[in-house]
Design a protein that fits this description.
about 190 residues; mainly alpha; Hypothetical protein af1432; globular; binds fe (ii) ion; HD_domain
Length: about 190
């Protein structure tokens, strides 16, 4: 499945801007990590783009409905199991880099966008220091579990500051790509 078809499928199941933006953000972060680790950028990008495909229609069951929504595709069991592995208390182990990475960038990519929106220069010059400061502010993006942000990057084995740099760079690239289609991460 190519990116164009994946995006069409995503649009069939995701109508809200908020979730679309999150899907783009995780796509950008996953592509940046794939580049960094020499992994398959297309596959990792699609994992990011599609990981929450069932969330809007089946928020309670998420991500357990993803296999049904992806069943007509050629993405394969291993890909689909990687999507399943990002769920809370998932029976699918995060036993590969792509699974650890998906988990580590999922909440963080959107948290970084929330930080960028508070800054006049947005992503430009956004460093780990600003992210850490906002992580300490409990009222900021209060729903985001700080502990999870930290433990997921520990499992991945990337140093925290580098983790932020990789994701910020990925978001900058993603923003350029989706701007061409009339979307933005910073809406
Ligand atoms: Fe999710
Ligand atoms: Fe997500």
């Amino acid at each position: 499945m190519n990116r164009e078809d994946a995006f069409k499928l995503l649009q069939e199941h995701v109508k809200t801007d908020r979730l679309l933006r999150h899907s783009f953000a995780v796509e950008g972060a996953m592509i940046a990590y794939a580049k960094k680790l020499g992994e398959n950028e297309d596959r990792w990008g699609l994992l990011g783009l599609l990981h929450d495909i069932d969330y809007e229609k089946f928020p309670e069951e998420h991500p357990d409905f993803a296999p049904k929504l992806l069943s007509e595709t050629d993405l394969g069991d291993d890909f689909i199991n990687s999507i399943l592995s990002h769920g809370t208390n998932s029976p699918y182990p995060r036993d590969s880099k792509e699974r650890q990475c998906l988990h580590a960038v999922d909440e963080m990519a959107s948290f970084i966008i929330a930080v960028a929106l508070m800054r006049p220069t947005r992503f430009e010059g956004l460093k780990a220091k600003s992210v850490k400061k906002k992580m300490k502010d409990k009222r900021f993006a209060a729903a985001v579990d700080r502990e999870e942000l930290l433990t997921s990057v520990e499992s991945l084995g990337t140093e925290f500051n580098e983790h932020i740099d990789i994701i910020v760079n990925g978001l900058i690239e993603e923003e350029k790509m989706i701007n061409a289609d009339g979307y933005t991460l910073l809406g």
